[in-house]
Write a structure and sequence with these properties.
The chain is α+β, with helices and mostly antiparallel strands. Helices cover 40% and strands 12% of the residues.
Amino acid sequence: FGPSRSLQVRAHPLPLLCCGLLPHQPPRLGRMAEEEAETLAEEEETPPEEGVPSPAADAPPGETDAGPSTETAALGGPDDGGDTMADTMADTSFQAGADESILHSTDAPAGSVSIDFVILPEGYGQTKVVDITRTIGQIRVELENELSIPENSLFLMNLSGAAEFRELLPDERMMMDFGVKAGDRVGIELRINYYQEQPAEDYVMPDTLELRVSDAHGTEKVVTVHVQRPVAEKPYMGGFRNKQSGSTFHHAITQTAPLQKKEIHSIRFHREVQTYQYRTRSTQCKKDNGTQMPKTGLFVDTANDFELLPRKPYFSSADKSALVLEKCVVIQCHARGMVARRRANQLRKERNERLELQAKEAERRQLEADLRHKREVERRMHPKTFEDFNVLYKELEAWRLNEANRIAKSGFDEAARRAAQRELLHRETKLLQTIDKLKIQAHTQNRDAKIKKKLESMANPKVWAQCDGETTTVHTPYTTRAKELMDLYSGLRLPLLTVDERLDVLLHVKWTVKEFDCNLTREVVDLIDREADMLNRGRPEKSFVGLRRRLANLFLQFIESPEFNPEAMKFQKVSRQLYDQTGTHPLSTVPIKALGQA
C-alpha cells in the first residue's frame, strides 16, 4: 500500500490514493526512494546470467518475487492524474519488514494465511500473509499506519474464500475464529471513510464596489460604493441562534460614518446665576410711543392731523355675552336632539325585539299545538301504550252514548228505532274489532322493541368514569358474545332474504348453538335442519311463518340463558333457581342428529 493523499471535499467523497494492481505487475511496498527506482531500472536492462534462473520468470503469472527486479506498482485514484508509486512513496517510509509481508507467497508459513485485500469502490487490491492468530483490530491498525490515514477510518468487511462472513468484521476476533486454517487463501473488502476539510480563505473586501441599480423606468446604472474600513472592532450587541439549522446571528449596527462635530474654539460666557428667576410678562403695545397735549406755553400744530375710524363697529363685552348665549343655545339644541334620537332608537329597538319575541312565541305555540294534534292523531291511528287504548275506548263509549241519545230523541217508530240500534251495535262491534287488531299489532311492536332494547343493553360496552371526569369505554368478552348473538337474532328476523342468504344465516346459528349439547339446542338444530330442507324443496314463504317464529323464540330463549350468554345474568328479574331449567341441562352422552341422518 502507498500513502494516502488528502484532497479538499466539495461535492464528492475524498478520492483515496492506494496501491493498485497493474495487469502485468504485482503490487509492492517498501522503502524505495528515487535512487532505488533508478537502480531497479538499470538492473531490469541488464540480462540475467546464463544458468541463473530469473525470479520473475519462475513466478506464476501475476506474481513475482520481492527482489530487485520488481517494478513499482502504480498509484491511481479518481482525481490524482495518474501518479506512480515512485512519485508518491518518495515522501514517506515504511517499516523494514513491510516488504516481506506484502509478497504473493504460495508456500505460506505454518500458522499463517494469505489475504487478498480489495479497496472499494476504487477496486485496488493487494495480498498479504498474516498470522491466523492476529486479530482484526491489529490488522486494521497496521493497514491504517501503512496507508497513513486517520485512526478508525478503515473498515474490514465481507470475508470470502475459504471462509464466509458477510458483515463488518469485529475487531476482537482472530482470523482462526472465522474458520480460516493455516495455508488458506481468503479475500477481505476494505472501505475507507474519512474527510479532510481545507480551511476556507479569508475574504478580503475590495476598496470599491460596483452595483447595478435599476430605476423606476427600468434603466440600469452603475453605482460605485466606496468601502470605509472600520478603525476599531464593532461592539458585540448580542444575537440569537436558530435551533433548527444551528446558525448564529448577531445584531448589527449601521455602517454610516458618525457626524464629526466642528470644534469651536471661541470662548462663550453666560450671565445666568443660581439666584436669577425668569418671569414672562406681555404688553399690548408693540413699540414705545407717547403723546403730547397742548398747554400754556406749548403750541401743537394740528394742520396735518386726521381722525382714524375702525373698519368694523366696536365689539363690546355685552355683544360677546349675547353671542356666547346664542351659540350655547345652538349647542344645547344639538345635544338634546342627539339624546332624543338615541332614546328613540333605543325605544324602537326594544319594540322590535318585543315584537320579534312575541312572533317567535306565537310560532312556538303553534308548532307545539300542531305537534300535539299530530301526536293525538298518531296515537289514535297507531296506539301503542295502555293510555292510548284507554283514550280509544273512552271516545268509543262517548260516541256510542251520543248515537244512542240521538236515536232515542229522533222520534222513530219501534221498527226504525230497532233497526238504528242494530246498526249502531254493528258499527260498535266493528270498531271494537279494529281496536283489538291495533292492540295485537301494538303488542307485537312493543315486544320487538323491548327485545331489541334488551339485546342492545347486553351488547353495549362498559362505561367507566374516571377521576378527571372523562369516561372509558371497555368491551368485555361477555359484551362481545352478546353482540354476536344479537346480530344472529337480527339476521333470523330479517325478511325478504334470498335462499342462499337465509341458508348462510341458519348455518351460522347452527354452529353457534351446537357448541352446547342440551334439549334447547337440539330443538333449535332440528328446526334449522327442517327449514333448510323446506328451502331446498322450494316451499312458499307462507309455509315458513310458524316455523321461523318458533325458531326465533327458541334462539331468543338461548340468548336469555346465562348458561350460554353470561351477560344475560344481569337482566334476570327472577332467580334462576325458580326457572324450569330442564331444557338447558347438558346432554353430552346423546349426539345431535340432523334431518336425513340415520
